[in-house]
Design brief:
about 600 residues; about 15% helix; single chain; four-stranded mixed sheet; mainly beta; 7 helices
Length: about 600
C-alpha cells in the first residue's frame, strides 16, 4: 500500500487486494476532520480590526475544517494582519502565526499535518508612527484637506488613502471629472517613527456634460428613450458635477418603472472638453396590486386595496386605483366607501417635478354627518431634495351633506399648497429623525358656498436611546379660518378620538356641542408620546399616552381636552411591524372603565 500522510496512517494490508482498496478508501473518508480554535494576542483596541482582517477567523466562522484550507488561511494572514496594523499606523509591527506550535510560514501546503487544533496569532505592534510630511497637491482649495492628514498626526494607510481620494473628489466636484493620483511617495523612517507621504494629482481639463446615451442592453426598455433621458435630467452643456450622476440614478429609480438604473461616465473625453454618459435601466414588472387591513373594537374593520401600472403610456407614467371600505362592524356611524384614481407623470417641465391628475368618489357615513363627494384635481409636486418636497394643486369639489343643519350642497374650488420634510431612517418603523407636513388649502365657494382657509400641520420626532429604546412624539394641529361652523363642510371640521388621534377615547367623541347638535370644531390640536422598546429580535413593546383638543373658534379658544393611554406589542415583518394596542380613557366619565383594541400594520405614527 502506498502511504498517504494527508489522510491516514500507514497500513499494511495482508488481505485480498480488492478488499484492501475498499478499506483504505473507507479509512480516508472517515478520518476525523479538524475542529481548530484561534487565539489572538494583541492590544484590546486592535482586536476587532485584526479579527475582521483575519482569513483564519473567517474560515472558522464559516465552519471550515479542511486542514489544507486552514493552513492556507493562516499563511495568508501574515499580509492581512500587517495591512490592518498599517491602517492604524503601526509600521514596525511583528506578526507570528503558529499552527499547533509551528510557524505557519514554514508549513508545506503539499504535506500538511493530519490535523489542526490551535492557531495562534501574536502581534507586537511596536510604536505608533506619526506623519512627518503630509501633502496632497495640487488642490482646488485649502478647505479640501482631510482631517488627520497633517504633520504630527497619527499616521496610517487608511487616512493616507482617504486624503488621496478626497483630493481627487475635490477636483471632480470642481468639474475635473478625470482627475487622478498620478504619483505618490510614502517613506517610513523607523529611527524617528515617522511616515512621509506625498500624493501628486493631475486634475485634467474642466469638463461639461455631453450627450447621454441609452445602453445597448437597455434598448428594449418599455419606457421610451427620450423619456428615460428626460427623467434622468443630466444637464447637457453644464459644468460636470458628480452629484448630478447620483441625482439622475435616484430620479430614474424614484419613478418605480425600473428595477435598476445606473449612469456611467465615458472613459474618453469628448469634443470640446465634454463628457458623455450612458444610461442603463432594467424595467420593473409593469403591474402591481396590494391590500391592507386594520381593525379596532370601536372603529371596526378597514379594508384597503390598490392596483397600479408603472408605465401606462410608455413614459414612466404611473396609473393607480385605490379603494377603501371602512367602519365594517364598528360603532362609528355607517360604512365609508372611497374610490380614487391617480395618474402621475414624472419629469414634468423639470426632472424633479411631477404632474398629478386625480379623481375621487367617496361616501363618509360618520356619527354626526353623511357626505357624498366628488373631487377632481391637477397638481405638481416639486422635489427639492431627498428630504423636502413642495406641492400645489388646483381642484374642484362637489359634496352633498346631511347633518344637524339639514341637507346641503357645497361647491368649492380648492387651491392647495403644502410641504413635506422627512429625514426618518425608516418610514414604517422609524428610530431616529423627524417628519413634518404642513398644508394650506384656501377654498373658494361657488353657488352660495362659503369661502375660507383650512390649515393643518403634522409634526413627528424620533430619538433612539441606547440600542433598544426609542422615544417618539407627535403633534397635530388644524384650523378653519373664515366661515362659521354652519357654513363649513362638516368633513373640513375637526374631531378628536380614535386610532388617528386619541386612542382609548371613542371615535370622533370630542367635537363641539352634544347630542344631535354635535359638530366638529374649527380648531384642533393633538399630542402623542410613545416609548418603544425591543424585547427580542422581532418583538417589541410600547407604552403611550395621547391627548386631543377641539374648539369651536378658529383661534383655539374655549375648547376641551381629553386623553387616553395604553400599552401595545409590535411584531416586525418585512413590510413593517404588525401593531396591536390596548388603550383606555384617562379623562372624562369613562376614565379607566373601557378598553379599546387597535390592530394594524406599521407604527401608530
Amino acid at each position: 500500500m502506498p502511504r498517504d500522510t494527508a489522510l491516514m496512517p500507514f497500513v499494511r494490508c495482508a488481505l485480498a487486494p480488492g478488499f484492501c482498496l475498499t478499506a483504505c478508501l473507507s479509512l480516508a473518508l472517515s478520518a476525523p476532520l479538524s475542529a481548530a480554535e484561534l487565539k489572538l494576542t494583541a492590544p484590546d483596541d486592535l482586536r476587532d480590526d485584526l479579527l475582521s482582517a483575519s482569513l483564519t477567523q473567517t474560515a472558522l466562522d464559516e465552519g471550515e475544517t479542511d486542514v489544507q484550507d486552514l493552513i492556507a488561511a493562516a499563511q495568508a494572514d501574515y499580509r492581512r494582519v500587517l495591512a490592518a496594523l498599517y491602517e492604524q499606523g503601526y509600521f514596525s509591527a511583528e506578526v507570528n502565526i503558529r499552527v499547533d506550535g509551528r510557524e505557519a510560514a514554514r508549513l508545506s501546503a503539499l504535506q500538511p499535518p493530519a490535523v489542526v487544533n490551535r492557531i495562534e496569532i501574536t502581534v507586537d505592534t511596536g510604536p505608533a508612527f506619526t506623519f512627518g510630511q503630509a501633502e496632497v497637491a495640487p488642490l482646488p482649495s485649502s478647505d479640501t484637506l482631510t482631517e488627520g492628514f497633517t504633520t504630527g498626526a497619527r499616521a496610517g494607510t487608511a487616512v493616507m488613502r482617504e486624503a488621496a481620494q478626497d483630493g481627487v473628489e475635490a477636483w471632480r466636484q470642481s468639474g475635473h471629472a478625470k482627475a487622478a493620483v498620478t504619483a505618490q511617495t510614502i517613506t517610513a523612517d523607523h529611527a524617528r517613527n515617522q511616515v512621509d507621504a506625498a500624493f501628486r494629482i493631475t486634475p485634467g481639463p474642466r469638463l461639461s456634460f455631453g450627450p447621454s446615451r441609452i445602453a445597448a442592453n437597455s434598448a428594449d426598455s418599455a419606457v421610451r428613450p427620450e423619456r428615460i433621458r428626460a427623467i434622468a435630467g443630466l444637464p447637457e452643456g453644464k459644468t460636470y458635477d458628480p452629484d448630478e450622476i447620483d441625482k439622475a440614478e435616484r430620479r430614474l429609480r424614484r419613478t418605480g418603472a425600473f428595477r435598476a438604473a445606473n449612469v456611467t461616465e465615458d472613459e474618453a473625453i469628448g469634443p470640446n472638453d465634454t463628457l458623455g454618459t450612458v444610461i442603463e435601466v432594467e424595467d420593473a414588472k409593469p403591474r402591481r396590486f396590494g391590500a391592507g387591513a386594520e381593525i379596532s373594537t370601536t372603529e371596526g374593520l378597514r379594508l384597503t386595496g390598490y392596483w397600479l401600472h408603472r408605465n401606462f403610456f410608455g413614459g414612466a407614467e404611473r396609473l393607480r386605483f385605490d379603494a377603501e371600505v371602512a367602519g365594517i362592524g364598528g360603532q362609528t356611524g355607517g360604512i365609508d366607501y372611497s374610490l380614487a384614481a391617480t395618474l402621475t407623470r414624472p419629469a414634468f417641465r423639470h426632472p424633479d417635478a411631477q404632474l398629478t391628475l386625480r379623481a375621487l368618489v367617496a361616501r363618509e357615513d360618520e356619527p354626526t354627518y353623511l357626505t357624498d363627494q366628488v373631487e377632481l384635481g391637477v397638481g405638481v409636486d416639486r422635489i427639492i431634495n431627498d428630504k423636502l418636497t413642495l406641492r400645489s394643486e388646483l381642484g374642484f369639489r362637489l359634496a352633498r351633506t346631511k347633518d344637524s343643519f339639514g341637507t346641503r350642497e357645497f361647491r368649492h374650488v380648492l387651491l392647495t399648497g403644502g410641504a413635506t420634510w422627512d429625514n426618518r431612517d425608516d418610514s414604517t418603523d422609524p428610530r431616529k429623525g423627524a417628519f413634518a407636513e404642513v398644508e394650506l388649502m384656501p377654498f373658494v365657494g361657488l353657488s352660495g358656498s362659503a369661502t375660507g382657509l383650512r390649515a393643518t400641520a403634522d409634526l413627528r420626532g424620533y430619538r433612539e436611546i441606547g440600542q433598544k429604546i426609542v422615544l417618539a412624539g407627535r403633534m397635530q394641529a388644524g384650523s378653519v379660518i373664515g366661515p362659521s361652523i354652519a357654513s363649513t363642510p362638516p368633513d373640513f371640521l375637526f374631531y378628536s378620538g380614535g386610532g388617528g388621534t386619541v386612542r382609548g377615547q371613542g371615535y370622533q367623541s370630542l367635537g363641539v356641542g352634544t347630542g344631535a347638535a354635535k359638530t366638529g370644531g374649527r380648531s384642533f390640536a393633538a399630542l402623542s408620546a410613545e416609548v418603544r422598546g425591543d424585547v427580542t429580535g422581532n418583538i417589541g413593546a410600547v407604552a403611550f399616552v395621547d391627548y386631543g383638543y377641539v374648539a369651536a373658534s378658529s383661534q383655539f379658544a374655549g375648547g376641551n381636552w381629553h386623553g387616553g393611554a395604553g400599552i401595545g406589542v409590535r411584531y416586525k415583518t418585512g413590510i413593517g411591524p404588525v401593531r396591536a394596542d390596548l388603550a383606555t380613557p384617562i379623562t372624562g366619565p369613562n376614565a379607566g372603565r373601557s378598553v379599546s383594541l387597535y390592530v394594524g400594520i406599521g407604527q401608530a405614527f
